[in-house]
Amino acid sequence: MSENADLKWYVVHTYSGYENKVKANLEKSVINNGMTDLIKEIEIPMETAIEIKNNKRKEVERKLMPAYVLIRMVMTNETWYLVRNTRGVTGFVGAGNKPQPLSEEDYKAIYNAVPSISGDIQEGDEVRVLNGLFENVVGTVKAVDLENNKVLVTVSMFKQDNDVELAYDEVVKVD
């Protein structure tokens, strides 16, 4: 079968922590049942996130949608049955019993998410700026906005306090 116009992305809900097992089991089942032309891709959406702990930056792979797996497939009774009866799968995402395919825009939006940063910097902490105009200047964190990966830092220059908005990864906590 050539590239099929009926191929669409579907979201499958799994037990938490079973995403990798579901993917592996589905890939085996697809091959064993000769459905490689109907089920093309199985993905666990991942992101690279930056974690900052004890002033050490570490890139980690994190699931974008824990307990969900994306499957690019042609929806038939057979493919629905195969996916639905895979160990660890609790069901398709959709209204009632009818699985809803993702639109291309929704699929792209999943992968175009801004990398997240998590760390141990909080309001009131003393931080050192790593680069830019205020490089090596020590200031006090006034506000933390993890959603936008920003921190508002009060720095003292020329005996005057100034609030500076910086990216979260542009500062490190001073011990």
N→C terminal distance: 62 Å
Structural class of the secondary elements? alpha+beta
Shape: elongated
- What are the low-pLDDT stretches, counting only 5+ consecutive residues below 50? none
- Percentage of residues in strands: 35-45%
Q: What does the average pLDDT come to?
A: 87
CA gyration radius, whole angstroms: 23 Å
Query: Counting H and I runs of at least 4 residues, what is the number of helices?
Result: 3
What is the helical fraction, as a range of percent? 10-25%
Main sheet: strands, sense, barrel: 5 strands, antiparallel
The count of strands amounts to: 13
Order of helices and strands: EHEEEEHEEHEEEEEE
Question: Secondary-structure map with pairings?
Answer:
Layout: E1 8-14, H1 19-32, E2 39-43, E3 46-53, E4 56-63, E5 68-73, H2 77-84, E6 89-92, E7 101-102, H3 104-111, E8 117-119, E9 126-129, E10 138-145, E11 150-157, E12 160-167, E13 171-173
Parallel strand pairs: 3-8
Antiparallel strand pairs: 1-5, 1-6, 1-7, 2-5, 3-4, 9-10, 9-13, 10-11, 11-12
